[in-house]
Amino acid sequence: MSVLPPYALAMGMRIDHVEDGAPVIVMDTSDRAAGRPGYLHGGAIAGLLEIAAISALRADLGETYASVRIKPVNISVEYLRGGAMVPTYAQGHVIRAGRRIANVRAEVWQDSRDKPLASCWMNFLLKAKV
Amino acid sequence: MDKPTQGNSARSPIKPDSTFDASQFVQFMSNYGHTGFIGMQYRDQGHNWVELAMPWHEDLVGDPETGVLASGPIISLLDNAASMSVWALRGAFRPQVTLDLRVDYVRAAIPGKTVIAWAECYQLKQSMAFVRGIAHEGDIADPVAHAAGIFIQVESDGWARGLEEPA
Predict the structure, then answer these.
(1) Which residue segment(s) compose the domain that B58 sits in?
(2) Which GO terms describe its molecular function (chain A) (predicted)?
(3) From A50, which residue of chain B is nearest by alpha-carbon distance?
(4) Which candidate in A60, A106, B11, B166 could, as Cys together with A53 as Cys, close a disulfide (CB 3.0–4.6 Å)?
(5) Number of structural domains, chain B?
(6) Is B58 in Cβ contact with A79 (below 8 Å)?
(7) CA separation (Å) from B151 to B10, B74, B82, B132?
(8) Is B9 among the domain residues?
């Protein structure tokens, strides 16, 4: 995935590096991501998880990506700890990508990957571009 | 801390005769942070529900080919409406955090249209609040997304922190 969508760029997200075939997305600290004083907004964390999940799926699909449209079907986020106003990382992991459905998990963390702020599963519908 | 004085349950977490003004709260929050970025606006509120709006904006787009909004801002709007629905029912603001939130994207939001998020707190316990919400574009029978979530009440200590403190 070479270019992130306008929402992700506006939120200060970019690809940090690629690890085990999936991009690690980093979100810079900014007021745009702030929720309660001193902490990230839960919606910003969910938004970062979604971008990481979609990026992982794009990478997984490889050349197939050009011929399909990815539609998010649903997401379930569990919040594990509050997010400080520091650079925040997320990576998705494709559990299964079939012909029509893809199941992806993603985690978001800050200082230590062992202490995730939140995790999610997402389901996607894959539709052939006509 | 709330000390219920009436109602059919002695354990009712709802304060009698108190109100949470979502309009004022949104007016304050819309100048700051993530809620300011997504352009959150107040629409309406009831005893256990709040309705917010988010005008379409190019910074919120997920698919530049079509102009369809990213799902992130829709989650944020639903999360905020749901959170405020708890305070509406409780009758006062009280620190809480999202425990989990599930969103089903029924269809893509129509490019250029304002997204409206209605959410209600359908069960309020001492420590947990159960919420559900619907995002739509004016006709709630034609939803963009459905949400279900749980908020957990927390102590004020540590809920917010000043910028001078180390993160």
Answers:
(1) 22-153
(2) acyl-CoA hydrolase activity
(3) B72
(4) A106
(5) 1
(6) no
(7) 22, 18, 9, 11
(8) no
In a domain, B1, yes or no: no
pLDDT digits (tens, 9 = 90+) for A9-42: 999 999 999 999 999 999 998 999 999 989 999 9
Joined together, the tokens standing for residue A107 give: 């985690």
Partner residue opposite B59 with nearest CB, options A10, A46, A76:
A10
Mean pLDDT of B63-69: 92
pLDDT digits (tens, 9 = 90+) for B14-57: 655 568 999 999 988 888 899 999 999 999 999 999 999 999 99
CATH number at residue B99: 3.10.129.10
User: Using CB atoms, which residue from B62, B75, B160 is nearest to A37?
Assistant: B160
Options 1.10.533.10, 3.40.50.720, 3.30.70.1150, 3.10.129.10; CATH of A6-128:
3.10.129.10
Across the interface, which of A7, A73, A78 has its CB nearest the CB of B72? A7
Please check whether residue B81 lies inside any domain of the structure: yes
Kindly identify which residue of chain B lies nearest to residue A47, measuring between CA atoms: B72
ipTM score here?
0.94
| B-chain residue closest to A80, CA distance | B99
Given a contact cutoff of 8 angstroms between Cβ atoms, the answer to whether B88 and B46 are in contact is yes
* B58 closest CA partner among A7, A32, A14: A7
pLDDT tens digit sequence for A89-103: 999 999 999 999 999
What is residue A98's DSSP assignment? -
Q: Does any domain span residue B72?
A: yes
Ranges of each domain in chain A: 6-128
User: Residue A130's pLDDT is what?
Assistant: 77
Q: Which residues pair with B136 in a beta bridge?
A: B116
